[in-house]
Amino acid sequence: MASISTDKKGLRRILFVGADGKRHPIRLGRVPIKTARTIKTHVEALAAAALGGHAPDPETSAWVGSRDSVLYDKLAAVGLVSPREPKPEAQATALGDFLDQYIAGRTDVKPRTRINLDQARRNLLRFFGAERRLDNIAPGDADDFRLDLMGRLSENTARRHCGRAKQFFRAAHRKRLIRENPFADMKGCGVKANASRFYFITLEEAQSVLDACPDAQWRLLFALSRFGGLRCPSEHLALRWGDVDWARNRITIHSPKTEHHEGGESRQIPLFPELRPYLEQVFEEAEPGTEYVITRYRNDNANLRTQLQRIIHKAGLLPWPKLFQNLRSTRETELAESHPIHVVVCWLGNSQAIAAKHYLQVRDEDFDRAAMAPPMGGGAKSGAQDGETGARKQAQPPSADSRQPSQETRKALENQGLRQVVAVCGETWPSCQVPPVGLEPTTL
User: Fold this and answer.
1) pLDDT confidence of residue 109
2) Helix 58-65 × helix 33-52 angle, to 10°
3) By the 8 A CB rule, do 186 and 146 touch?
4) For residue 25, is it within any domain?
5) Where is the domain boundary, 321, 339, 366?
6) In this structure, is residue 44 part of a structural domain?
7) Domain containing 207 — which CATH number?
8) The pLDDT of residue 92
9) Do β-strands 2-6 and 244-245 pair in parallel, antiparallel, or remain unpaired?
10) Which of 23, 227, 296, 336 could form a disulfide with 274 if both were Cys (CB 3.0 to 4.6 A apart)?
11) 3-class secondary structure for 148-175?
């Protein structure tokens, strides 16, 4: 049997009798009584197993294996478990070794994601060094890493790298290579919306760029972004001719970015009239048996951003801040003005929250339309006055004529010796029937 002892300072310890017949203490420090009771139960099981010369039960064995080095070493010091053998230095506890193994083991990620992970890895190794041990990186070091990124990179890029560093160390914590994740409490690791980088590409600007495109396929690439709202280049390059339903005016869009979400592998968009002529032209020029819609710009070395910048300059315009995302944002803003938002996000393949934060734009035209629109509820005052007048008419008491009884009623009253008296001091007085003489006897 074991017992729990608590001193005046709140420090707890477990006392038990070992196989040698001696009483041994295990000092726990300031821990909740519930935790101490759990440890006591397993200590009793370990002591009984040591006394009987057999292995502890599976639950206790699993509990022992999941203990950190501090408690495990205390159990080993009193002979309840065997000491752990020290880890070899070659094991992946150094930052560089761990990051290499982690990224190599992520066979489930896409090539672009792997590139992003490798960029975050290079920033971590540049700041901490490849030989820095994982368990020697504290939360304060993580804060210094973030400040270093903020001084060298844009805010959103620094946020992304901190988020990936948080992901790396969370994996190390789950593998029990470290006791805590130094990035666990870091906030603001997601992309922050930047309204200053919004830009609405007008139809006139879009037409100028389309006229400057070198061929039909480039015009379609631009039109799919501006009029279809597709993500470039992943959704453009995944588009096949079999995805175009000319009869029903629909296009099936395959989305590599969201295919790992349930129901996010594809969506349908209308074959918008602005998009149709550019799609028809490429269809007419396609060779028989061609599978993919875009065929000329599928190589890995095809830098579409650089080419689009040249085309925009050729059109006599200045490149907007986010070349392809601003095109997609423009289309979503247009569609939201004429269709319900739940329909628009279904077509564009994002959520209402993401659309409101990163895509929907407020333009000068919105202010102009609001300023030129007629006042909301323009006839409200006159309508209220009419309603008030009607209410007054209903509240007014009926006129004296309307209170006159019918001829038959008047004759019946006179037969009983009664006459009608109408109030003369105000129409609010009710009429009443009184005898022709007063209550007192008549006098001269």
Assistant:
1) 81
2) 120
3) yes
4) yes
5) 366
6) yes
7) 1.10.443.10
8) 47
9) unpaired
10) 227
11) HHHHHCCHHHHHHHHHHHHHHHHHHHHC
The confidence score (pLDDT) of residue 427 equals 47
Burial 63-97 (b: 16+ CB within 10 A, else e): bbeebeeeebebbeebebbeeeeeeeeeebbbbbe
Q: Which is it for strands 23-29 and 2-6: parallel, antiparallel or unpaired?
A: unpaired
Amino acid at 30: R
Are residue 168 and residue 254 in the same domain, yes or no?
no
The residue segments making up the domain with residue 345 are: 200-366
> What does the block give as tokens for 213?
């495109």
The answer to the question of residue 148 being in a domain is: yes
Question: Are 16 and 2 spatial neighbours (Cβ–Cβ below 8 Å)?
Answer: yes
**Are 359 and 328 a contacting pair, CB within 8 Å?**
yes
Q: Which residue has the tokens 């109408």?
A: 422
Query: Which are the contacts of 190, defined by CB distance < 8 A and separation ≥ 6?
Result: 159, 163
Name the amino acid, one letter, at 411: K
**Whether residue 342 sits in one domain with residue 204:** yes
Does residue 181 share a domain with residue 99? Answer: yes
- Give the contacts of 287 (CB within 8 A, at least 6 positions apart): none
H-only helix segments in 270-322? 276-285, 304-314
pLDDT the model gives residue 239: 94
* 107 and 58 inside one domain: no
* 56 C-beta neighbours (distance < 10 Å), count: 20
Residues 225, 339 share a domain: yes
Q: What is the mean pLDDT of each run of 10 residues along the chain (444 residues)?
A: 86 86 87 89 88 84 82 86 65 83 87 89 94 91 93 90 94 91 89 81 95 95 94 92 95 86 86 95 92 85 87 95 92 92 92 83 83 68 50 49 56 57 47 54 54
* Per-residue model confidence (pLDDT) at position 147: 94
Helix (H) or strand (E) holding 245: strand 244-245
Which of 149, 175, 151 minimizes the C-alpha distance to 163? Answer: 149
Bin 291: left if φ > 0, else alpha if -120 < ψ < 50, else beta. Answer: alpha
Contact 69, 63 (CB under 8 A): no
Domain final residue, candidates 331, 366, 401? 366
* Structure tokens, 263: 């129901």
Residue 398 maps to a domain: no
Question: Do 121 and 167 belong to one domain?
Answer: yes
How many domains, the chain?
3
* Gap between the Cα atoms of 70 and 87, Å rounded: 15
Indicate if 100 and 37 belong to the same structural domain.
Answer: no
Same-domain status, 316 and 254: yes
